[in-house]
Amino acid sequence: MTGSSWPKDRKHFFILSSAGKPVYSRYGDESVISSYLGVAQAIISSFESSGDQIRCINAGRHRFVFLNRHPLYLLTVSTSGESESQLRGQLFHLYNQLLSILTAPQLARLFNKRINFDLRRLLAGTEKLFDAMVDALSMQSITELKSVLTARLDASLRHAVTQAFKTAHVKEAGYAALFINNRMVTYAHPRKQPLHPFDLHILTNMVTTSTNYGSGETWTPLCLPRLNRTAFVSAYISYIAPHICFVAVSHDKDAFFALSHYQTRLREVGHHACCIAWTLMPRTMPQVTRDVGLSRPSTRP
């Protein structure tokens, strides 16, 4: 994105530190946006010095919405016509995406040691996660209805996949989900302890950007902020067939082999149903539903 064209986009998202250092920008390169972020940081600081917080500025067609999450500031500049509350909700999503990589206590420790710490070094390579989340935020129904994208499937076929989930379940899996073509088919959770939709968005975003997960198994630390913003869980990711992704989350950092066994059993008992589901899934726009699981199996075997 060139310096002359980036202001033409209808919506921009920025993250900067309280010292004014850029952390993330959806569009524009650092040489162009640094001066703008310096102005934004000065405006925010002027309000804070008087014991207040800036929330929104309306200037013609442009709406500037701020979110203060010290030691970070988040800002969106939009001409989309969305309300202040809608845009602030999207900033919360972007902040949750950051917390999925670095927990809140980690952020506090880093900036307590050095207020002008450059966070970009730790976030190097994660830009696609932020970009994908910003792109997903263009679907207002996801954020406002607290919903996730689900695959359109016949009820009997979804039930068959869900039954395979229940049959293959292992106790080490706290949460598990199956995605077909980046759309959720079903997910399992402890009884009366479902994941918040915002955390499901993080899992979905991880699958959407997992181009390097096409083969093999991946085991990665992940923070789900609405579940616990102070600690990591461990996420297991594997494709049981092309376009069919299995994700399991455990509180046990040593549960890799147990979750790998879960995936193996799911291949054995559910591979046929999953492949049929992929074949029959419409290639039209996916439905958006608040009932993210549609068929939510208990994690009890």
From TrEMBL:
<dbReference type="Pfam" id="PF19037">
    <property type="entry name" value="Fuz_longin_2"/>
</dbReference>
<dbReference type="GO" id="GO:0006914">
    <property type="term" value="P:autophagy"/>
</dbReference>
<dbReference type="GO" id="GO:0032585">
    <property type="term" value="C:multivesicular body membrane"/>
</dbReference>
<keyword id="KW-0967">Endosome</keyword>
<keyword id="KW-0926">Vacuole</keyword>
<protein>
    <recommendedName>
        <fullName>Vacuolar fusion protein MON1</fullName>
    </recommendedName>
</protein>
<keyword id="KW-0472">Membrane</keyword>
<dbReference type="InterPro" id="IPR011012">
    <property type="entry name" value="Longin-like_dom_sf"/>
</dbReference>
<dbReference type="GO" id="GO:0016192">
    <property type="term" value="P:vesicle-mediated transport"/>
</dbReference>
<dbReference type="GO" id="GO:0006623">
    <property type="term" value="P:protein targeting to vacuole"/>
</dbReference>
<comment type="similarity">
    <text>Belongs to the MON1/SAND family.</text>
</comment>
<dbReference type="InterPro" id="IPR043971">
    <property type="entry name" value="FUZ/MON1/HPS1_longin_2"/>
</dbReference>
<dbReference type="InterPro" id="IPR043972">
    <property type="entry name" value="FUZ/MON1/HPS1_longin_1"/>
</dbReference>
<feature type="domain" description="FUZ/MON1/HPS1 first Longin">
    <location>
        <begin position="11"/>
        <end position="132"/>
    </location>
</feature>
<dbReference type="Pfam" id="PF19036">
    <property type="entry name" value="Fuz_longin_1"/>
</dbReference>
<dbReference type="GO" id="GO:0000329">
    <property type="term" value="C:fungal-type vacuole membrane"/>
</dbReference>
<comment type="function">
    <text>Required for multiple vacuole delivery pathways including the cytoplasm to vacuole transport (Cvt), autophagy, pexophagy and endocytosis.</text>
</comment>
<dbReference type="GO" id="GO:0035658">
    <property type="term" value="C:Mon1-Ccz1 complex"/>
</dbReference>
<keyword id="KW-0072">Autophagy</keyword>
<feature type="domain" description="FUZ/MON1/HPS1 second Longin">
    <location>
        <begin position="174"/>
        <end position="265"/>
    </location>
</feature>
<keyword id="KW-0653">Protein transport</keyword>
<dbReference type="InterPro" id="IPR004353">
    <property type="entry name" value="Mon1"/>
</dbReference>
<keyword id="KW-0813">Transport</keyword>
